[in-house]
Amino acid sequence: MKLTILGSGTTDPASGRNEPGYLLEIGRDLVLMDAGSGTKEHIFDSGYDDFRINHILISHTHADHVVDLPAFFWSRWVRKNKNDVTILGPKGISGFIKKIGEAFFPGYDDFFMFQIKVKEMHNSVYQTKNWKVKSVYTWKQGHTFSPYAVAYRIEHQGKSLVYAGDMCYDYPQSLINISQNADLLLIESALPDQRRQKDHLTPSRAAQIASEAKVKKLVLTHFYPACEKYDLKKQAQKYYPGPIILAKDLMKIKI
Q: Which CATH number do you get for residue 128?
């Protein structure tokens, strides 16, 4: 598997980073994880074609994680792409995708030349011929407008990646369980330790998760501009002894 960071920032453009978006190459399959602003452009900037994307994993429906979905669908129609796409997401994702279709593409069931399949992930498993996705809730009450969120564990040929989007500081035990011994944990670290809030993780908190789950590599991402003033890696190293990577847009990581 190969991970490409399409966006490592937030909705605040002052960081010089795109909103969250990640591309995972699994054999012939191309999986998009979240789709913040700028995701579509960075897919091409990273050397990929969005024609190849056949799965989209949405962690939650905050705008900075989904706003490029209409652009993704529109690009496929303009370029006459007939390849189906499956979207996985938390409870409510089916209705959310339907509302996107109604708002941007009235009559889209007949309009598109490809089929959009949607599966809501309730602490469940999704299986393809070559890889598997497990999911757990990371919140059920939500924070600021998004009632549900999930983390994903993707497994392929003995390798595993766990992706957790926005998290509450008091994370659930289920996140530790799904992350156990993962080869790579890609997790938000939106604010430095000095700016701790209840609705996001800090480097130290993300590192505690990585350490408790015994993951092999930790990738921190989803940085607000305040992070640029601090040594985030040093903060994380207090709690996690393994390799730590601070995500950058267009960075590629082999798993």
A: 3.60.15.10
